[in-house]
Amino acid sequence: SHMLHQMYSVGEEAVAGSHLTACTTFDEFIDSMQLRIISRTESQITFDLIKAHPSIANALRRILISEIPTVAVHSISVRENSTIFPDEYIAHRLGLIPLDADPEMLDFSGGPGTTLSFRLTARNDTSEVVSLYSDQIVWVPQAGQRDLHVRLQPGVLICKMAPGNAVDIDISAEKGIGADHAKWSPVSLCSYRLMPRIVLEKDFYEEDARELQSCFSRGVIDIVDG
């Protein structure tokens, strides 16, 4: 360990608090911080937060998990459920189906016009066990909601239905935040890790280079010819 400290130094911006204390105002700190997107898909984003104190990264992580409003199934009214699954089980499954809807169009009050209504009806008239999926849930627009973009994630298994089983359920979705219930959390996983900038103070060759490489995780140090 002592030898390694002599062989390399950690960049100043990687030292916790060093960049934060160098800024004289909060605005200066925010302006100097950089966000670089590494990859982005419909369901996942990876980015680097540069020149940021770990406390800022952790605060951002906590906000993403519990403070961003989303829309999720909040209550159901069961007209019929002849499956072996209790109403509470199906309600829990419905509540965790991702719902793509703009939370700005709803209020937190949960009163008239502040909810989204859905209907789930299905009957197994076959002689085989069949699967009930989220694709079978139908949105029932209320007054003034027909132009809204509302979409439940398809392909989510709700339960299995034996021959002769039937379900008839009214579903209500409301606006909320993850701090109240996990069903309103917009992320299933949100984490961060420190990425220090390692600066070598001299060149290393042959055995010394291989020894240095072995002290780090795979991919951190590369050995090049020449």
Automatic annotation (TrEMBL):
Record-annotated DNA-directed RNA polymerase RpoA/D/Rpb3-type domain positions: 44-226
Domain of life: Eukaryota
Database matches in SUPFAM superfamilies: Insert subdomain of RNA polymerase alpha subunit, RBP11-like subunits of RNA polymerase
Sorted UniProt keywords: DNA-directed RNA polymerase, Transcription
GO biological process: DNA-templated transcription
GO annotation, cellular component aspect: RNA polymerase I complex; RNA polymerase III complex
GO molecular function, one term: DNA-directed RNA polymerase activity
PANTHER family assigned: DNA-DIRECTED RNA POLYMERASE, DNA-DIRECTED RNA POLYMERASES I AND III SUBUNIT RPAC1
Name used for this protein in its record: DNA-directed RNA polymerase RpoA/D/Rpb3-type domain-containing protein
Organism listed in the record: Homalodisca liturata
